[in-house]
């Protein structure tokens, strides 16, 4: 009987522990949801403030729904999770960052994503931008040059169920010719110039966003449009600061 009581009490203690843990997890989820809603509101405020320069006072609703649904705290290091929904970049290791949410939303909005689009991303990083895109387009192909980041992002995106994202370890400067042409290209690192391979792999009628400028200096976020006749048009959007695009080029 004493042994039975011990087992019963042990099971009861385990049940209480699991129930407490479940409550804590639910509380965390609720707090993250509230933080995510606050982040979306902040993005909307920034969009209004910068609308004169970007040409858009409000981002498309599907873009904002994706920003509201993707759990950014899953894409930052554990030590930074409490800052996950602040409107600022965060370090993810190896000298790289996860971009400011407003910039992610802006770049996504600028390419005007469609549900049938095939999109190339240069600079997977944590996988956050790819995750945002995956909710909006048919397929995302994303390239990362830093092996640990590429491996971690691949595992993370698979774990979280982003099945339409294909990752690759490599130099994004040269694009991904096997899957070209792309309806849109998003470059999340600053180049000294617009890579010609990427322009070539952009479909007529497609759009590319890329920060261009000096290393660790203020750059210009460019919107590049290729017309149906193959003419390339470029517009400066806003000044930005991104980590540099690296590689053998």
Describe the fold and architecture:
By secondary structure, this protein is an alpha/beta fold. It has a single domain (30-240), classed as Vaccinia Virus protein VP39 (Rossmann fold, 3-Layer(aba) Sandwich), CATH 3.40.50.150. 39% of the residues lie in helices and 23% in strands. The chain has 6 helices and 9 strands. The chain has helices spanning 2-54, 61-69, 101-110, 128-134, 147-159, 196-201, and strands at residues 90-93, 96-98, 118-122, 139-144, 165-169, 182-187, 202-212, 219-226, 232-240. The strands form 2 sheets. It has a 7-stranded mixed sheet with strand order 5-4-3-6-7-8-9. A two-stranded antiparallel ribbon has the order 1-2. Strand 7 and strand 8 (219-226) form a beta hairpin. Helix 1 packs across helix 3. It is globular and about 50 Å long. The N and C termini lie far apart (76 Å). The relative contact order is 0.11. Mean pLDDT is 90; it is low at 11-25.
Q: How does the SSE layout of this entry go?
A:
Layout: H1 2-54, H2 61-69, E1 90-93, E2 96-98, H3 101-110, E3 118-122, H4 128-134, E4 139-144, H5 147-159, E5 165-169, E6 182-187, H6 196-201, E7 202-212, E8 219-226, E9 232-240
Parallel strand pairs: 3-4, 3-6, 4-5, 6-7
Antiparallel strand pairs: 1-2, 7-8, 8-9
**Which structural category fits the helices and strands?**
alpha/beta
Fold-level CATH name: Rossmann fold
List segments where confidence is low: pLDDT < 50 over at least 5 consecutive residues. 11-25
How many strands?
9
Shape: globular
Count of helical stretches: 6
User: How many structurally independent domains?
Assistant: 1
CATH homologous superfamily classification: Vaccinia Virus protein VP39
The CATH class:
Alpha Beta
Helicity, as a percent range? 25-40%
Mean pLDDT: 90
Any idea what the radius of gyration is? 21 Å
Q: Which oligomeric state applies?
A: single chain
Strand order of the largest sheet: 5-4-3-6-7-8-9
Secondary-structure element pattern, one letter each: HHEEHEHEHEEHEEE
The N- to C-terminal Cα distance equals 76 Å
Just name the CATH architecture: 3-Layer(aba) Sandwich
Major sheet: 7 strands, mixed
Strand content: 15-25%
């Amino acid at each position: 009987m004493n042994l039975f009581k011990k087992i019963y009490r042990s099971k009861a203690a385990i049940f209480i522990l699991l129930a407490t843990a479940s409550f804590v997890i639910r509380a965390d989820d609720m707090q993250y949801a509230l933080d995510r809603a606050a982040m979306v509101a902040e993005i909307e405020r920034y969009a209004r403030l910068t609308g004169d320069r970007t040409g858009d006072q409000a981002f498309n609703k599907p873009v904002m729904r994706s920003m509201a649904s993707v759990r950014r705290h899953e894409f930052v290091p554990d030590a930074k999770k409490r800052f996950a929904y602040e409107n600022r970049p965060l370090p993810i290791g190896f000298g790289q960052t996860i971009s400011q949410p407003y910039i992610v939303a802006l770049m996504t909005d600028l390419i005007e994503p469609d549900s049938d689009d095939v999109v190339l991303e240069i600079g997977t990083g944590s996988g956050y931008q790819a995750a945002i895109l995956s909710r909006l387009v048919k397929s995302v192909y994303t390239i990362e040059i830093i092996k640990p980041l590429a491996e971690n992002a691949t595992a993370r995106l698979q774990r979280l169920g982003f099945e339409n994202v294909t990752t690759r370890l490599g130099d994004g400067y040269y694009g991904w010719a096997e899957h070209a042409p792309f309806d849109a290209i998003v470059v999340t690192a600053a180049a000294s110039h617009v890579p010609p391979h990427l322009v070539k792999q952009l479909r007529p009628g497609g759009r590319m966003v890329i920060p261009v400028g000096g290393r660790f200096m203020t750059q210009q976020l460019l919107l590049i449009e290729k017309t149906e006749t193959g003419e390339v048009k470029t517009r400066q959007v806003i000044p930005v600061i991104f980590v540099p695009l690296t590689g053998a080029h």
